[in-house]
Design a protein that fits this description.
The protein has helices spanning 43-50, 72-77, 94-104, 111-120, 136-148, 166-181, 193-199, 217-224, 271-280, 295-305, and strands spanning 2-12, 18-28, 32-36, 58-63, 66-67, 79-82, 154-158, 185-190, 202-207, 210-216, 226-233, 250-251, 257-263, 285-292. The protein is an alpha/beta fold. It has two domains: 2-222, P-loop containing nucleotide triphosphate hydrolases (Rossmann fold); 226-305, 2-Layer Sandwich (Alpha-Beta Plaits). Strands 6-7-8-3-9-10 form a six-stranded mixed sheet, with helices on both faces. A four-stranded antiparallel sheet has the order 2-1-4-5. Strands 12-13-11-14 form a four-stranded antiparallel sheet. A hairpin with a 5-residue loop joins β1 and β2. The longest helix is centred in the middle third of the chain and has 16 residues, at 166-181.
């Protein structure tokens, strides 16, 4: 079931710059959806439009069945937003910031919930500190606490771990997994592709304001993933023997390594034939290893292709 439906969404600014171009996308309830794209691809504009902060030029967005313009309050109350930029009152404390945010959405005070959120985000010890005294990573966590205070069903994380140390990043992902286990739908934009690879159920790639593809992560990696077999040669080659041309091998610059790329989903890898042909051509190797393309390789290839 879709919790967010985006239909024919475009955004063109007064300058003529087209930030979003005819976007159609459904986000499923309870999934972690990763939106990948280079800087300036339109990720933040798309989030802003879904949250009702950016007015679209054309198209509609519904959140939990509510039109996000005609029924803004109902749509927005379902959403928690953690923006890329840190906007908090520097002189307030994490406790008062989260409590106030809950009140803004018309929810009754719930000190036990605020305590749980601050503890989950390792902010409890700093609950009374002024935000100005906190590190960048701590401030980022305060933003997450603020977004969670009104118990949203959907959480947007725009580059949530930019400038956050590795330990804190892990702690934040534990919180994300817990939220998802509790049924919260999570949409994250990230340029740490390993994050998307580890966390996401589905991946959308956006570039130049257009959605290039949306796939289940496993399918995407299977579809576009390639394996490479690297052969470390006993004797360097100055050129590839003509007898091996059919295998489309790559020879390393120094002639010491042959690379064979094959499709992970193909019925036949062609490795047996390759090894036979290498033997027949008198090419000997003393070691071999395989590597599989990561989501990052896939992403770079897609954007490059466009």
């Amino acid at each position: 079931m879709s919790i967010i439906s985006i239909s024919n969404l475009s955004k063109t600014y007064a300058t003529g710059f087209s930030a979003l171009k005819n976007i159609n996308l459904d986000i499923r309830a309870g999934e972690i959806f990763a939106l990948l794209g280079p800087n300036g691809a339109g990720k933040t504009t798309l989030i802003g439009t879904i949250c009702g902060l950016v007015m679209p030029s054309t198209g509609t967005v519904t959140v939990g069945g509510h039109d996000n313009i005609k029924d803004y309050r109902a749509a927005r109350s379902m959403i928690g937003l953690v923006p890329q930029e840190l906007h908090t009152d520097a002189w307030e404390s994490p406790w008062s910031t989260a409590s106030f945010s809950r009140g803004l959405f018309g929810k009754p005070a719930n000190p036990a919930l605020i305590e749980k959120i601050l503890k989950d985000l390792s902010l409890w010890d700093k609950r009374k500190s002024q935000i100005i005294t906190l590190s960048g990573g701590m401030k980022r966590r305060v933003m997450i606490a603020k977004a969670l205070a009104h118990e949203p069903q959907i959480l947007f994380l725009d580059e949530p771990t930019a400038g956050v140390d590795v330990e804190l990043r892990k702690a934040m992902w534990d919180v994300v997994r817990e939220l998802r286990a509790a049924g919260v739908t999570i949409i994250l934009t990230t340029h740490y592709i390993e994050e998307a690879e580890e966390m996401a159920d589905r991946v959308g790639v956006i570039n130049n304001g257009e959605i290039m593809l949306v796939e289940d992560k496993a399918t995407l990696m299977q579809k576009l993933g390639r394996k490479q077999l690297k052969l470390h040669l006993q004797d360097k080659l100055s050129a590839l023997p003509a007898a091996l041309a059919a295998h489309h091998l790559e020879l390393s610059a120094d002639g010491s390594e042959l690379v064979y790329t094959y499709d992970t989903k193909g019925e036949r890898t062609g490795i047996t034939t390759l090894l036979n042909d290498l033997g027949a051509a008198g090419v000997r190797f003393n070691d071999l290893n395989t590597t599989q393309s990561s989501l990052e390789d896939i992403f770079v290839n897609l954007v490059h292709r466009q």
